[in-house]
Here is the input.
Amino acid sequence: MAERYAITQDVKVEGAAVPELIKLKNERNAKLAEEKKAGAEAKDNERREQQAALEKRTVDYEKEYASNQQELVQLRREAKVNGNFFVEPEAKLLFVVRIVGIIKISPKPRKVLQLLRLKQLHNGVFLKVNKPILNMLKLVQPYVTYGYPSLKTVRELVYKRGFGKVNKQRIPLSSNEIISDALGKDGIHGMEDMIHELFTAGPKFKQVSNFLWPFKLSAPKGGFICKRHGFCEQRGGDWGNREELINDLLARMN
Here is the structure.
């Protein structure tokens, strides 16, 4: 592939007459070589600038996460001192895992699972918490389990199981260039940008979520309890809303 773009260099013999066409060809090749060198340098500089900007944003994200966590701790302490109850902030992010296969599923739940991109057993996706999504989850409750993932869980999933959708193909996220090419127009140039957008359910959440291929998780270490029963039932089960306890399940499936 690289040979097609290689610029040829003709050997010059001293004292030999050089035909006019060869002179033109040499001038053209010299000009192309200069353009190629300038383009490569410009690309290297741009990549270096993007890397520096991403490192700076990553530090800012870490400060933001720590600040939010510290604020919650402070509010809990104030509530305890004043003898009040502290109401935890509503979750913005869901992670949904399919726990049932394709056998004996009626058409409507099957279509909803397809719309949620949960086409295979143990597939998982990130979703925003909003009314349409919650209504869709009600229709497929017995076939999925979901909850509110922590920052640690989001980061581990994206780094370990993250694959991108490039030209309808499942491509491993081996470098930030893949992300930058697909999501650069939305201001997302690296893994930490994607993690921040997912965890905070930011304005570009839809683009990031659609770019990520549905996560293919392993069967949980130690197995499920009972897929036929709900997680909140007295006898215990697996399907339904686990809230923060989804992190324990994903740790066993990742």
Q: What stands out?
A: The mean pLDDT is 90. Strands lie at 93-98, 123-128, 144-147, 163-166, 169-172, 215-216, 240-243.
